[in-house]
Prior knowledge:
Elements: H1 2-39, H2 48-59, H3 80-105, H4 111-136, H5 147-173
Amino acid sequence: MRAYDEFTFNSSLQQTMNTLLINIFFSLLIFVAAYRWILRPVLPQLKPSVVLIPILLLHSMRHLGLMFLTTGVTSSAMPKQFAVPAAAGDFLSAVLAFMAACLIQRKSAWAIPMTWLFSIVGIADFAMAVVLSRLYSAADFMGGAYWIPSFWVPMLIVGHIIVITVLRQMKRDGVNFSA
């Protein structure tokens, strides 16, 4: 009986991981399609602030990554080696994103450097979370936080692509936010 239970448990974990990867893949596919079909064709005609501020405000919601530390949302067995750095990285990214949005809104000379800083930190956080998630099998303990990697992360990755595209376009065109 023990061998059967262990097999069933391991199969369940494998199925969870495969389901998560499928959800991530299809969410990423949908968000990339939305960018390519809807935003990218009109991107050159839009003011950078009109594109960047909504994306930065969405990234400001990364404070929700703190739920990786919340037992009841995630399993009490959630590996702290994943949960703590993922939550801290998400929170830092949220703060930097909100600061960048505020600086763009104020047309500050610091808007572009802060937006680059946010992008670098935010992408590094995602990369670190992926590595730590794999190392510590965090997907097996996501519980109610499952929607973060399956929905939010793909959307926010595409957001980073758009932010970097706009920043590079601004540099190429010699555009800044200063009044």
